[in-house]
Write a structure and sequence with these properties.
mRNA guanylyltransferase activity, RNA binding, methyltransferase, D-amino Acid Aminotransferase, Chain A, domain 1, disordered N terminus, nine-stranded antiparallel β-sheet, mRNA Triphosphatase Cet1, Chain A, disordered C terminus
Length: 1110
């Protein structure tokens, strides 16, 4: 208790007089014993948490308390129900006490008190019956003394041993009466200097009523009571040791006993409040009110309904590769630590806000909004009403107490919000603008802490953390190297578990609630990358499933080596409005579009399905069982915490382990488990989906210390890097170009060649960005394939999510299925498809495999065989260049186009015009580039990565690499030149030709292939003639000259399939094609020439190659 707090009591008695009454009473009945006890948090026993339990035990042990059994003693208390004379049901004040685990176990088997007494002979050490009575004075029963300010009560009662006929009567009616049960594990601690015991208990009770007064519900059987399946509660009591107080003892008066009682109360309050300076409930409430007034100072009304959301210390995102990319930093949309960043250590301490209130007293406010008084104050009034963020570090590396608060940010100073300021000093207009760190350092110099007691020793140190600040002469990697070397030095004071990166030139989010700041990053070594999950045991009915592993051989006792385990379902917090669908592809497969939910509270616990890398079994975890002290098989964490159902557990991930054994439970998160079970404050299910998914990505793509210290070894691009498709800001310099390509070019090409109810295959579907064109074309079905699983599965904006969202809004639209695959391998035989699930879908689309909705899914079943005879349209938008990497890839890709397109169907594609690009780069050397800048910002760049001098119209034109940067994408991408003349000739080998003149007229397309410049002119003509509406094109017609320069380097192709070809036998080189296909091609060619009455010579000499091995 603080130095000036006084306890206030109601009732006839106060603490002093009730203690005096207890000491003065003489009890002459040998079977009756006085009992004076203090119970904590009596307003709601559920307020005590596992953390309170652990902290109290640790605190008392640290100051000399001991226990005969730190594992605790098991006991059960059973109270019987009886019928009063008025016919009411009441619980008896006589209870049966079972005081040994074996006795309890036998009771559970027998549920017969008579047989239990026969077995244990009525030994009071095992079984006894006790009557609980209120102590009395001349006015009647003595009521407890409540101290609401410190949340404990002092009660004086009597405990009488019951024997004889009364016990016999209870035992005889045992099976006919309802009972309540309390199953207790109790640790009793004592100290030679204190005439009292501290009992700290874990309690499981019978189920309670759902409404006040929440009494236990009597049941006939222990199984019906739910005592073993209900959640644990925790109890802390001080009980005066009757043998050490009273006459002829050292503690024979109130003056001698009461100080010891108060000191013991203070020890327990200290452990509950997490400080050596416990304060009253009113004081804590006043601190929080002042805090809320400070952070809501701009509002007229101050909210006082306080929850963990009101903790304004920002959270940090997990550092990813995309935040380290060193090339084209100025053009990146994602925050990047190479520019204007600082780095400091992440201490293994407790995050807290340090609040200096209006009276100069210093308090911690933790992330759960619990207040802890530091025992310090300052008399510097100019610094009152100040709020600082930091970490409280209780011990150094050697477990010695240091009580250090390490500050890393300043939010308010003298009531003024400083969050808009940059972190470090900035030069602006030849003047220095002071940053938050400068103000923070000045604050600590002026603070001049004092102890709240008369002791000269200050209870706490307050320091600013060491920051390494990147500048022109010192890169962020130099900073990391300096800091990591500093941390690894044995003289570094405290333990750390990572680094924190903070922008040096930016202000903070000025919110009055907790947020994750996208510009703040945390990095942890791989061994510290963990995820908190809510766990639920896999069950059959209400019983946990137990599985067995049978190992070869026998154990040391000659028994067969069998290990048992349970399976856990790992859940995280998920909100579809924030995090997308939990498993959108599963929704598509089952044709389950979900129901539109406009409620504000959509946060719920769902199984964890990560995106990168995708793993549809990531939510499953097997945990071995081992015996507890009672011989029962239990699950334990690595820190030996007991794992129970509906608990939040921190897991690490071991990639070397077999599937479903990769998650390793580290520790039970008792703080989060309490929040989850108590349902107080925001919903708690462990980490939310974004945090879990980000940590998962970091676990599988770890950033090493070497990367941070050197800047080397950082992957330039990931095979599945979702940054390529990240959303761009609205200020990018090519937004008009993007409008033209998306709203006119692709719309024109797809809609004009489509007929109502056509089916389409998109071999590079991305995130389904062409969905509006498919809808406009009134297609029946679309099958999309993409190399990136994130493009398909992303829970916020992947193809499946976009499709589901559109399905919610529309009554009629094309049905779609999406799979992850590589279109440079064969699609029909599923070599191209990347998982068994997606292979099953693909086979079904082409009419192969089981036609059973329960196996393949309702959504797949509906479209079984849709692509068996090919698709009306094969689409490849802005991706054709990827397949010109080499002849093998090109041949396999064109085989896919051939095998997936019906006769009279179309293949439509867009890409850079390779011939134009080659000519443009002709005078440049390999490694040189052409750049277009706008407003000092690079908007486009193309780098030459080949050194060939010719670009012939044959197979030698394949594998001409270039690297293209465009601001709307935000990073360089490797591409290959496409020789359009060669492509047209090769497509003829596969039974395709460009649409002819008449077809172009019919489709209103300016040629079978042409530059985007032609389409731009076509668009302007249609706008002028009123054929299209300008509002449908956004800013397409307003492309700037530099945008036109970029756009017009692109070319489109519209091919029509005019004959069937055995694509497997086609030799892609223009010099060699199969004999059968050559004859078919020649026949088709002559028929076509006759039809249009226009004879032309073939543009190349035909040769026939004999195919002998078909």
């Amino acid at each position: 208790m603080s130095h000036n707090q006084k306890m206030n009591f109601s009732n006839k008695y106060d603490m002093n007089s009730l203690t005096e009454k207890y000491l003065s009473d003489n009890i002459f009945d040998a079977r009756t014993q006085k009992e004076l006890e203090i119970r904590f948090s009596t307003s709601n026993p559920k307020d005590l948490t596992r953390m309170d339990y652990d902290n109290t035990i640790q605190k008392l042990l640290s100051i000399g308390f001991t226990s005969n059994n730190l594992n605790g003693v098991y006991m059960m208390r059973i109270s019987n129900e009886f019928i009063t004379q008025e016919g009411d049901e009441e619980l008896s004040n006589i209870r049966a006490e079972l005081n040994n685990f074996n006795v309890i176990q036998d009771y559970c088997k027998l549920e017969n008190m008579e047989k239990l007494l026969e077995k244990y002979g009525g030994n009071p050490e095992n079984i006894n019956f006790v009557q609980k009575l209120k102590a009395k004075d001349e006015d009647g029963k003595i009521l407890p003394v409540f101290n609401d300010e410190y949340m404990f009560k002092l009660s004086y009662q009597l405990e009488k041993q019951v024997t004889g006929n009364l016990v016999n009567k209870i035992v005889d009616s045992w099976t006919q009466t309802k009972k309540t049960f309390r199953y207790i594990n109790r640790i009793r601690l004592s100290h030679p200097d204190f005439p009292m015991f501290v009992d700290i208990s874990i309690v499981k009770s019978s189920s309670r009523q759902q409404k006040k007064p929440f009494r236990l519900i009597p049941q006939y059987s222990i199984e019906q009571s739910g005592v073993f399946t209900n959640s644990e509660n925790y109890e802390i009591e001080i009980e005066i040791d009757e043998e050490r107080v009273g006459s002829f003892t050292e503690y024979n008066s109130v003056d001698k006993l009461l100080p010891k009682m108060k000191t013991c109360i203070k020890y327990i309050l200290s452990s509950l409040q997490g400080t050596n300076y416990p304060v009253s409930k009113t004081e804590m409430s006043e601190v929080l009110k002042s805090y809320m007034k400070l952070i809501h100072s701009k509002k007229k009304e101050i909210p006082y309904n306080i929850t963990p959301k009101n903790f304004i210390g920002y959270s940090s995102s997990t550092l990813q590769y995309v935040n380290l990319v060193k090339d084209d930093i100025e053009n990146m949309n994602s925050p990047n630590i190479n520019n204007n960043y600082t780095v400091t250590d992440k201490a293994d301490g407790e995050r807290a806000l340090l609040y200096i209130n209006e009276k100069g007293k210093l308090y911690f406010i933790d992330s759960s909004m619990r207040v802890k008084f530091t025992g310090c104050y300052s008399d510097q009034k100019a610094l009152y009403n100040t709020l600082v963020d930091g970490e409280y570090i209780e011990h150094n590396k050697y477990k010695e107490s240091i009580n250090l608060f390490a500050c890393f940010d300043l939010y308010y100073l003298k009531g003024e919000d400083k969050r808009r300021l940059p972190l470090t000093d900035q030069e602006e207009d030849a003047k220095t603008k002071k940053g938050r760190l400068t103000y923070l350092r000045q604050l600590l110099i002026s603070l001049k802490l004092k102890s709240i007691t008369n002791n000269d020793l200050i209870p706490m140190r307050v320091e600013v953390k060491h920051f390494e600040i990147a500048n022109k002469s010192k890169s962020i990697y130099n900073c990391c190297e300096n800091l990591l070397k500093r941390i690894s030095d044995p003289s570094y004071e405290y333990e750390t578990d990572g680094l924190i990166f903070t922008p040096s030139n930016m202000g903070l989010p000025e919110t009055d609630y907790k947020v994750t700041w996208d510009y703040s990053f945390k990095w942890k070594p791989s061994k510290y990358n963990t995820i908190d999950f809510l766990i639920k045991t896999k069950k059959t009915g209400n019983t946990d499933d137990i599985n067995y592993l049978y190992n070869d051989g026998m154990d040391s006792s000659g028994q067969t080596d069998i290990n048992s385990y349970k399976t856990l379902i790992l859940l995280c917090g998920f909100d579809e409005k924030k995090h997308g669908y939990m498993n959108p592809c599963a929704n598509v497969i089952e044709d389950d579009i979900g129901k539109k939910d406009n409620s504000e509270d959509n946060y719920k616990a769902l199984p964890f399905y990560p995106t990168n890398p995708y793993d549809d079994n990531a939510y499953i975890c097997n945990v071995m069982l081992k015996k507890d002290i009672n011989g029962d098989m239990q699950m334990y964490t690595e820190e030996n915490d007991l794992i129970e159902d509906n608990t939040i557990v921190e897991f690490r991930y071991d990639k070397k382990n077999e599937n479903r054994w990769k998650w390793i439970p580290l520790r039970v998160r008792n703080d989060k488990t309490f929040q989850y079970r108590s349902r107080k404050g925001p919903k708690m299910y462990g980490n939310n989906y974004d945090t879990a998914n980000s940590n998962w990505k970091s676990i599988h793509n770890p950033i090493t210390e070497k990367m941070l210290m050197t800047g080397n070894g950082i992957p330039e691009e990931m095979a599945d890097d979702d940054v390529y498709y990240r959303k761009t800001d609205t200020t990018n310099q090519t937004k008009r170009l993007k409008d033209f390509h998306n709203l006119y070019v692709k719309t024109k090409l797809i809609t004009t060649i489509s007929n109502v109810d056509d089916i389409l295959i998109d071999v590079a579907v991305g995130k389904g960005g062409d969905l509006p064109k498919w809808i406009k074309s009134k297609l029946d079905f679309v099958f999309g394939i993409d190399l990136s699983p994130d493009n398909i599965e992303n829970k916020l904006d992947g193809a499946c999510v976009r499709y589901l969202e559109e399905r919610k809004r529309r009554k009629r639209m094309p049905y779609c299925l999406f799979v992850n695959g590589n279109s440079s391998m064969n699609i029909r035989n599923t070599d191209a498809i990347n998982s068994d699930k997606y292979k099953t879908i693909t086979r079904a689309v082409f009419g192969d495999g089981p036609k059973d909705a329960t196996i393949i899914g309702k959504g797949v079943f509906k479209h079984y065989g849709k692509g068996k005879n090919g698709f009306n349209i094969t689409s490849c938008q802005f991706a054709l260049h990827y397949f010109f990497e080499n002849i093998t890839i090109l041949q396999q890709f064109l085989r896919n186009v051939c095998e997936c397109t019906k006769v009279n169907g179309y293949f439509v594609a867009t890409c850079y015009d390779g011939n134009k690009i080659f000519s443009m780069l002709e005078r440049y050397k390999k490694g040189e580039s052409i750049t277009i800048n706008k407003n000092s910002k690079k908007v486009w760049e193309i780098e030459k990565r080949y050194d060939f001098l010719e670009f012939k119209d044959d197979s030698s034109s394949v594998n001409y690499p270039i690297c293209v940067y465009q601001d709307s994408i935000g990073k360089p991408a490797k591409e290959y030149l496409v020789n359009s003349t060669y492509l047209i000739r090769v497509m003829e080998n596969y039974g395709f030709r460009l649409i002819n003149e008449q077809e172009c007229l019919d489709l209103n397309i300016p040629g079978g292939t042409n530059s985007f410049e032609t389409l731009f002119n076509k668009m302007n003509d249609e706008l002028r003639d009123g054929i299209i509406d300008e509002k449908d094109l956004r800013n397409s017609k307003d492309m700037k000259d530099y945008e036109k320069q970029i756009s017009f380097l692109n070319r489109y192709f519209v091919f029509k399939k005019i004959r069937e070809v055995n694509a497997e036998n086609v030799i892609i080189d223009d010099k060699y094609i199969s004999k059968t296909d050559e004859e078919e091609k020649l026949t088709e060619f002559l028929e076509e020439q006759e039809r249009i009455k226009k004879i032309k010579r073939l543009p190349y000499k035909l040769k026939i190659k004999q195919i002998t091995d078909i």
